[in-house]
Amino acid sequence: MRPLIAPSVLASDFANLQSEVEMLNKSQADWLHIDIMDGRFVPNISFGFPVMESIKGHAQKPMDVHLMIVEPELYIEKFREAGADTISVHIEACTHLHRTVQQIKATGAKAGIAVNPHTSVQLLEDVIADVDLVCLMSVNPGFGGQKFIENTYRKIEALKNLMVQRNSQALIEIDGGVNQNNAPLLLEKGADVLVAGSFVFSSADPIQTIADLKSIK
């Protein structure tokens, strides 16, 4: 199966956000990946509801919203109203993870869990069968353009094994440092969705770069 490609809008040109979104509409991108940062869970701040609603006004593809925030349960419904199709929360930020997953699903959105590089996927054992997506961070979250963490390959394998044991149908998403060099092995190990930010938006031809990632088998 060909991978799903989710360009990260965080790496786009914010001064020309409408044209960047329209470019993604024309491309082979499957989703738009939206990173929400609060300056508390991660040492950076991105954007909030007004910008997300503006993106939604032009986007013709599903919005994959990644909440890098504390207390995400306070904002789930608001992000759904702003256009989120998938909402991923960090396992490290959720005291009552199962409850938050059910809260996301109650809005009609797909539920995802994001996992930092240092966090064991075994902690997902009791909730993996209830989610639609697991986002493995292959860099430390907060900033784009970071170097890919090689341990991610082993982590995908461990997650796949856990999913088989628990009969989970979740998609595995990889976020951070994805490029044409590591994408083939990521897919071989079991990844389904590739998030690419700087690699796409810094390329000379983003539409072709997306097409090249999409063509990897």
Automatic annotation (TrEMBL):
GO terms for biological process: pentose catabolic process; pentose-phosphate shunt. It is an enzyme of class 5 (isomerase). GO terms for cellular component: cytoplasm. Keywords: Carbohydrate metabolism, Cobalt, Isomerase, Manganese, Metal-binding, Zinc. Its cofactor is Mn(2+); Fe(2+); Co(2+); Zn(2+). Substrate binds at residues 8, 66, 142-145, 175-177, 197-198. It catalyses: D-ribulose 5-phosphate = D-xylulose 5-phosphate. Binds 1 divalent metal cation per subunit. PROSITE patterns: RIBUL_P_3_EPIMER_1, RIBUL_P_3_EPIMER_2. The keyword tRNA processing does not apply. GO terms for molecular function: D-ribulose-phosphate 3-epimerase activity; metal ion binding. Its EC number is 5.1.3.1. Pathway: Carbohydrate degradation. The active site is at residues 35, 175. A divalent metal cation binds at residues 33, 35, 66, 175. The keyword Zinc-finger does not apply. Belongs to the ribulose-phosphate 3-epimerase family. Catalyzes the reversible epimerization of D-ribulose 5-phosphate to D-xylulose 5-phosphate. This is Ribulose-phosphate 3-epimerase.
